[in-house]
Write a structure and sequence with these properties.
The structure is a single chain. This protein is an alpha+beta fold and 99 residues long. Strand 1 and strand 2 form a beta hairpin. The radius of gyration is 19 Å and the shape is globular. It starts with 9 loop residues before the first strand and ends in a 16-residue tail after the last helix. The C terminus is likely disordered.
């Protein structure tokens, strides 16, 4: 790593293996496309850490999320989930599946 910075488009997978937390970072491919024409996400790097290190990072990410919500940069994910159509009980169909 030349400059110490790595750009990622997101996290592909998080797992716990042999007592260590593994976070796989992904980037959008510049050349590979899926059937819909969207860029395919490709693994870039995997960060491996202790559960204690993961707990520390998780706490820091929660604090950053709160700051971004307070600044209006993002919508609170908790409120967004509760307000989605799947949470609107008036839209539920009564009866049993397959009727």
């Amino acid at each position: 790593m030349k400059n110490g910075y790595v750009y990622v488009d997101g996290v592909g997978h998080i797992s716990l293996l042999n007592g260590m937390v593994r976070i796989e970072f992904v980037v959008a491919s510049a050349s590979l496309r899926d059937e819909a024409g969207k860029s395919v996400l490709e693994p870039l790097q995997t960060l491996i850490m202790t559960p204690q290190g993961f707990t520390q990072i998780f706490g820091n990410m929660e604090k950053m999320m709160q700051r971004m919500v307070e600044s209006g940069m993002v919508v609170d994910p908790a409120s967004e989930r509760r307000a989605g159509p799947a949470r609107n009980r008036a839209s539920f169909v009564s009866g049993t599946p397959g009727e």
